[in-house]
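From: lab user (bench 3)
To: helpdesk
Subject: output format question, protein + NAP

Hello, I'm new to running complex predictions and I'm not sure whether the block I got back is the full result or only part of it. Here's what I submitted:
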Amino acid sequence: MTNVLILGANGQLARNTTRMFLQTTDARLTLYLRRSSRLTCPAPQRATVVEGDVLDRPTLEAAMKGQDVVYANLSGAMKEQAECIVGAMHATGLRRLIFISSMGIHGEVPGERYSSVLDPYRDSAAVIEASDLDYTILRPGWFTRDASLDYQLTQKGEPFKGHDVSLNSLSALIVKLALTPGMEIRRNLGVSQG
Ligand SMILES: NC(=O)c1ccc[n+]([C@@H]2O[C@H](COP(=O)([O-])OP(=O)(O)OC[C@H]3O[C@@H](n4cnc5c(N)ncnc54)[C@H](OP(=O)(O)O)[C@@H]3O)[C@@H](O)[C@H]2O)c1
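Helpdesk reply: Thanks, we reran it on our side. This is the complete output you should expect:
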C-alpha cells in the first residue's frame, strides 16, 4: 500500500485528487495544510490531517516519515517551498516527488509572452530539476470542471499544445504517477486536454 503526502491539501486540485485517490486506489493519504480546521477529514481510516506550513522544516520532516510519495500542490512562495521540500526529502530519505507548476514557465505557450508572475514557478522548477530526486513537474493548462478524463503531455523544450485541462484529467494523471514506479521520472511535462 502506497503512502502519499499531499502538501497544500486544501487547494482546489489537491481536494479533487484526494477524492480520486480515495475512490480509485487503496493509497493511504496524509493531508498537510495550514489552518487544518478548514478541512474535514474525508476518510478517517485512510487519511490523516496534519496542520503545517511547508516552510516549517521540522513539521514537514515529521510528516514525511513513513511516506512513499510527496505530491506538492502549492502556491505563493514557490521557490522557498521547493527548497524546503527538497531539503526535507533528502533528510528523510524520500525520493519520489510530484510537483504542480503552471504552463508558460518556460515561455513555451505559442502566442503568449512569458510573464514575470511566473518567476516563482520557474524558479521552483529549477530548484527541483537541480536536485537528484525522482521528480515529475507538471505544467498544467487552465483548469476546467469538464468531466472528461483525457490529457496530452508535452516535454520540456516542446511547444505547449492546447490551453485547458480538466481537474479530473490532472487528478487521474497524478494518481497514476504516484502509484506507477518509474513513470515519467525526472520529467517536466506540459499537460493539456487531449
Ligand atoms: N487554476 C488554474 O487554472 C491553474 C492553471 C495552471 C496552474 N495552476 C497552479 O496549480 C497549482 C495548484 O492549483 P490549485 O487551484 O489547487 O491552487 P490553490 O487552490 O490556490 O491551492 C494552493 C494551496 O497551496 C497552499 N499553500 C501555499 N503556501 C503554503 C505553505 N507555505 N504551506 C502550506 N500550504 C501552502 C495554499 O494554502 P492556504 O489555503 O493555506 O493559503 C493553498 O491551499 C497552483 O500553484 C496554481 O497556481 C492553476
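A quick orientation on your result: The first strand starts at residue 3 and ends at 7. Let us know if anything else is unclear.
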